[in-house]
Write a structure and sequence with these properties.
two-stranded antiparallel sheet; Rossmann fold; elongated; alpha/beta
Length: 229
């Protein structure tokens, strides 16, 4: 009798063979991002790009009202035309966000042929990267991804975390960022101890329970104590 456990579809062994995504935050300042499509999905893609400093080019005969407003504000460029492969020239990232799956697939094929990374709305199998569900607390950003298997679940987890993570984290980060160059200027052997000491102040908790002014005062006292002013 064979005593080996049965192998069933979707088992742990099979799941661990799946290639994992490499998480990264991209610097898009001055880089061209092409969004093909002019509807609500395209508007959502553009919305996530506006604050990055990217050069955003929207390819579509018509524009969603939100995109029209961004165009009027000078935040995006618009090519009022159906999609053509030539539109991808010079792009760093491409987003296929039309309401036609066949056109989206063609965009993906064109982008991959010329070596440009592509995100296809609602089609992870044709995408080179996914846009995660993100939480922002000033300069603190947390991204949630399900490796493309369920964007809806990623949004669900994001909403859970949004309730758990207060704005105080972003305010604490601002102070910690101010201390960073001073800590890095200290002797190498002292830096780890300084970081541990600073983080032990729990500035975010002080902000939440006793207010920002007191947290700021304790931070300034810490700098003086460590002679880092």
């Amino acid at each position: 009798m064979d005593s080996r456990p049965d192998v069933i579809a979707g088992s742990t062994d099979e799941q661990t063979s799946k290639e994992k995504l490499y998480p990264a935050f991209l610097s898009l300042q001055g880089k061209t991002c092409i969004v093909v499509g002019g509807g609500g999905v395209a508007a959502r893609k553009v919305r996530s790009l506006v604050s990055t400093g990217a050069i955003i080019v929207v390819i579509s005969p018509l524009l969603h009202t939100e995109l029209q407003a961004l165009l009027s504000a000078g935040s995006i460029h618009h090519i009022q035309s159906p999609y053509s492969r030539e539109h991808l020239t010079g792009a760093t990232l491409v987003f296929a966000a039309t309401n036609d799956p066949a056109i989206n697939l063609q965009i993906a094929q064109d982008a991959q042929q010329i070596g440009v990374w592509i995100n296809v709305a609602d089609n992870p199998d044709s995408s080179d990267f996914y846009v995660p569900a993100s939480i922002h607390r000033k300069d603190l950003t947390l991204a949630v991804s399900t490796d493309g298997s369920s964007p809806a679940f990623a949004r669900y987890v994001r909403e859970m975390l949004e309730h758990a993570l207060s704005e105080a984290l972003g305010q604490a980060l601002e102070m910690i960022a101010q201390a960073r160059p001073r800590i890095l200027a200290a002797p190498k052997g002292q830096q780890a101890q300084l970081w541990e000491s600073l983080l032990s102040l729990r500035l975010e908790t002080v902000i939440e329970t006793e207010g920002y002014i007191l947290a700021r005062s304790r931070f300034e006292e810490w700098l003086a104590q460590k002679r880092l002013q």
